[in-house]
Amino acid sequence: MHGTFTDNDLSHVIDADKAHVWHHLVQHKPFESSDPRIIVEGKGMRVWDQNGKEWLDAVSGAVWTVNVGYGRESICKAVYDQMMKMCYFAQAAGSVPGALYAEKLIEKMPGMSRVYYCNSGSEANEKAFKMVRQIAHKKYGGKKTKILYRDRDYHGSTLAAMSAGGQDERNAQYGPFAPDFVRVPHCMEYRKHELGLEHLSGEAFGIAAANLIEEVILREGPDTVGALCLEPVTAGGGVIEAPEGYWPRVQEICKQYDVLLHIDEVVCGIGRTGTHWFGYQHYGIKPDFVTMAKGVASGYAAIACMVATEEVFDLFKDDPSDKMNYFRDISTFGGCTAGPAAALENMRIIEDENLLENCTAMGARMMSNLQALQEKHAVIGDVRGKGLFLGVELVSDRDSKEPVDETLAQKVVAECGNHGVIIGVTNRSVPGRNNTLCFSPALIATADDIDQITDAVDKALTTVFG
Ligand code: PMP
């Protein structure tokens, strides 16, 4: 192994973990007869587990987070220096890295203006939802409180974020949810038959899928709808890029019905989709709110941002004599300076190492490798995504598009593990039908890394499906 872990340390850590840690998103019964995986060390694209086994991480910390890779000394140094100088003060006051990061971030987001710091993607989304509700009360006499969200999109694990959750597997058993969150249909061309739009394709399909949002607005009453919250490329719902024509029509609809557009960049933000800093920037849209988290500091510190336009900000400062006229919200750890200090250095690395360009180039390579696998393996129904953010949907029959049994998709993930590569599987929309392999390697990936990942997938598919 890379580090200096003795057998004694190791068995203690495993015992402590098994006795006391409640892991996220996994069932614990299997740990009665096997050990959980404990990741001990990471460098670049690779991590080492408790047994010294080396893994190529094709999902950036399992949930598309570590965009600049592991073991970045300069980020650790920036955080250390900032911690020694000034670790924390509530964000009612300002901080040096908070101001400098906000300035840098807004430079990358023409049209946006104000950064609200908090800790997680869920929390950033909650901030935007609260602002929409407050605007409804301030500007529309308590109307326009409804927030639309899309089937298959995910916006977080807190209860209001789950109320905006389009993934039924995640939501099951956690209701009742908050009122006035209303679901709109997905825009996934591969499964357009679910929308009754199988006769349309390309741009015509994209426009028709966006019109389904308009139908919901008209059904609910435009004077009741305050905002529409969308992922630029749906992540956990199956790595879904909207078709041509979708986004311009979405923008038009929001404008026509005075609906604020909230773009959730928690996964796509900070370069994940290549070329641009944010997913929405590929489509020329102008959001009112943009939320981001994971890649902001690549997991070196917990930081999330809710970014709003100056027009939104202005709504909260128009009457200083009104004691209720500001955003009455706080996030204690939004005042941690480790976050913006790490984020500033994270951004410098992405710029200096041309990682947006690398992401585009390596994303294209990975897409073409996966498309070649689609020619070879009948089980691959669809390959999709943008930049280094790709999905491979597995189906038992290409005509019916019936998802493969989830246990088979999980076997592919396990087989990739046998070849030393960590990949993910998702979908989350239908409980028990997770059939989409997902890939989000760090933006530093090389051609060799990409080929190693897709070779492992090739071998795994052969082992599982023949
Ligand atoms: N939005 C999206 C699109 C996400 O994928 C996630 C997390 N996977 C979240 C929000 C929630 O982020 P967090 O887990 O940091 O609360």
TrEMBL record:
Gene3D superfamilies with a match to the protein in the record: Aspartate Aminotransferase, domain 1, Type I PLP-dependent aspartate aminotransferase-like (Major domain)
Keyword Ribosomal protein: no
PROSITE patterns: AA_TRANSFER_CLASS_3 (PS00600)
Cited Pfam families: Aminotran_3 (PF00202)
SUPFAM superfamilies to which the protein is assigned, alphabetical: PLP-dependent transferases (SSF53383)
Cofactor(s) demanded: pyridoxal 5'-phosphate
Statement: the UniProt record of this protein carries the keyword Transferase: yes
One Gene Ontology molecular-function label: pyridoxal phosphate binding
Membrane-spanning ranges: none
Keywords: Aminotransferase, Pyridoxal phosphate, Pyruvate, Transferase
Family: Belongs to the class-III pyridoxal-phosphate-dependent aminotransferase family.
PANTHER family: AMINOTRANSFERASE, AMINOTRANSFERASE CLASS-III
Protein name per its UniProtKB record: Aminotransferase class III-fold pyridoxal phosphate-dependent enzyme
Native organism: Tritonibacter scottomollicae (Epibacterium scottomollicae)
Biological classification of the source: Bacteria, Pseudomonadati, Pseudomonadota, Alphaproteobacteria, Rhodobacterales
